[in-house]
Amino acid sequence: MTDRRDDVEFIKERLSEDPTEDFLEQIAATVVDQMADSFPELSRKSRPMDEVLNEFREKKLEEVSSTGQYRRKLNYLQTYLEDEIDIDSTDNLTSEDVERYNKWRKYESLSRDKPLADTTLRDDMYLFREFIQYLIEHRMAPVRFEKCVEIPEIDYAGGEGVDEKKLDPEIAKAALDFLRKYEYADIEHVSMELMCQSGPRKAGLIGRDVPDFDYEERVLQYETDETTPLKNDESSEREITLYGDVPEIIQDYLKDQRPPVTDEEGREPLLTKGDGRMSPSTLQKIAYKWTRPCMVGLDCPHDRDPEDCEAAQKNNSAYKCPSSRAPHHIRTGYITDQKNRGVSADGIDQRCDVSPRVQKLHYDQPNDSEERERFEDEFRNADDDPNSGFNHN
Fold first, then answer.
1. pLDDT in tens, 215-247
2. At what angle do helices 280-290 and 187-198 cross, to 10 degrees?
3. Among 125, 133, 256, 329, which is disulfide-ready with 325 (CB 3.0 to 4.6 Å)?
4. 314 and 321 in contact (C-beta within 8 Å)?
């Protein structure tokens, strides 16, 4: 009894000293464990891990558009739980198992020697934390497990996590020239025109409907919707002006080539191949297909023979071409090119829905020559100042 009384006094003393959150959590967990017999609703459930994984998989894949990417991430999670640490029941999962996932995923899950990039690991750990939260929510794991999930911090300001790929303006011009000549106003041509001449996000572009295009005003409107939301919801809503021949190309597509279809909500998607709204993966394939230099009349910069190159011969393998680019890289190339041409950060924010800070961190990727040329006029004007002692012409 003396030991128990001492324990009580110790806890009372700790509670009076502004206790840490960890200490309170330990007490709460102990109380719940002790009261489980009297209050069954507080007890943790024990369920087969494979059943829980399948439930979580179905739930997650219903929420996301890029199901292929998430299937791979979920497969790693399943491999870890079922094969690596051999967990057959949720009550067998320990805090050490949760803590170890970070290290396993980064260093042990791949066949290559090079560890997983922190940017990729960060996304996987967010998904792992969602799974742990799912267990906690359904009383299959203690709350403290969530704190065992370590998510790496990315120093974006220091250049970490920045995808430096972008579409070269020369390839963009060649692609549009080729499409205007040989594939005029078909769905792939229109998709490339809009990607190359306005730099939209993939989801934002495929969410546009026919009424969003105003031929007379030469405008494309971006409005958010529950089924096709914009990244920043109402803050992303805007109108963009379409320049040059783009309005005529879209109008010709609508008159002559767009199939008269609606999506599951009865809306008329602007971009469609006839089977409802275009999927993100289809837009991705279009981008890869038409950014291969050899596909649009340019020489291969990689000294490959197109007759023997799988990336050149098969559209489904276009992503294997070192020069091919995804919609995100087209967006980066567009924004960089506009900055090189002197467009302001605020102007790009209005057109592309990306703040000046994020432009600098992720999208504006000039090479050394482009960066030098941006400031040449400023220094040239300064050189013309006759009152400067440092400038003598």
1. 999 999 999 998 899 988 899 999 999 999 999
2. 80
3. 329
4. no
342: left (phi over 0), alpha (psi -120 to 50) or beta: left
Q: Quick one: tokens of 92?
A: 């067998």
For residue range 284-319, list pLDDT tens digits in order.
899 999 999 999 999 999 999 999 999 999 998 898
- Candidates 339, 334, 348, 362; CA nearest to 176 is 334
Torsion of CA 115, 121, 127, 129, to 10 degrees: 100
Per-residue pLDDT tens for 4-52?
666 666 666 666 666 665 566 566 656 655 555 554 445 678 999 999 9
Q: What residues pair up with 219 in beta bridges, in sequence order? A: 214, 241
Contact 325, 333 (CB under 8 A): yes
Helices in the chain by DSSP H: which ranges?
2-15, 21-35, 49-63, 67-78, 95-103, 118-137, 169-182, 187-198, 202-206, 246-256, 280-290, 310-313, 327-340, 345-352, 356-358, 368-374, 376-383
Q: What are phi and psi of 70, to 5 degrees?
A: -75, -30
| Residue count (the chain) | 393
HSE-up of residue 93 (Cα within 13 Å, Cβ side): 31
Element of type H or E holding 221: strand 219-222
Look at residue 369 and tell me whether its pLDDT is greater than 60: yes
* CA separation for the pair 292, 295 (Å, rounded): 5
- Phi/psi region, residue 143 (left: phi>0; alpha: psi -120 to 50; beta: rest), is alpha
What's the CA gap between 94 and 185, in Å, rounded? 58
Start-to-end C-alpha separation, the chain? 95
CATH of domain 169-372: 1.10.443.10
User: For residue 1, what pLDDT is reported?
Assistant: 44
